[in-house]
Amino acid sequence: MKKIALVAALAAVAAPAFAQSSVTLWGRINTTVESQKVGSQDRKVVVQNNSSRLGFKGTEDLGGGLKASFSLEHGLNSDTGVATGGTQFWNRASWVQLEGAFGGVRLGKWFPGSYFATADYVSMHNHDTGTSADNLYGTRFTTNNKVSYFTPNVAGFSAELGAAAGEGAGPRAFDVAVNYDMGPLHAGLGYEKVGNYKQMAVRGLYELGAFTFGGYYQREEISGFKNRDVGRLAAMYTVGQSEFHLNVGGSKAGGDGAFRFGGAKQYTAGYNYNLSKRTKVYGFYTKTDYNSTGQLDFNSLAVGVRHNF
Prior knowledge:
17 strands, 309 residues, mainly beta, 9% helix, 3 helices, 16-stranded antiparallel β-barrel
């Protein structure tokens, strides 16, 4: 009986500690059926994955305002079941973080904050995924071997300051993101430097009743090539469970095609119907005109389903 009482007492003491930890399985399956045309090739019907993923994330309350958290995220092709990213299983994210009143320090692999602060935020219709993703935004998209500091949110402002170790196999990378979110106004700034490459972008987005308007402007530079300017405007109108989307992007002519294409344009019109907070059916038409920069023009008419879990 004494042993049973001792075990019960230890379990009672340990229970609050276990209750402070949580692990969540989550993901997104996003698949479309599309009629695609590339250059002068014949149009074809394709079942298309749109950045489907599976992940685990968790937090532990360490006391004194300190928390530990982690994320493991795997990208998969929902049309075939095959993993994306080659041999990397956790090809989207694998990081651990300590956070408190001072902010947070994260180590590992994840997408650049400069991207989320600018281009991703503006691509509202399909979360910047699949064939209707922003084809003109310039980035080296450094994700591996990173260390970042995340500031606390102060009066709507927050920032991420990150660096990636080259580890002798490549150049070091630096990434800065600043976000402002307060009421209907949202703004962001992103800066990225990888070796002799750098880009900077600013973004703004405003909610006006049923309308949302947004856009970004980017300057992309690399030694030995011409600079390139990129811009995108987006709008969304919401009524009931329906969303109507329109966006247009372009890159200033004069860019070097061997670096990135200049003079290209992209247009997308989309419609989303939200069956619930987690599930939607949608359709879109997207077209990218590369303006004879050596890249084949592309257009697609698509219908699909996205489910978050």
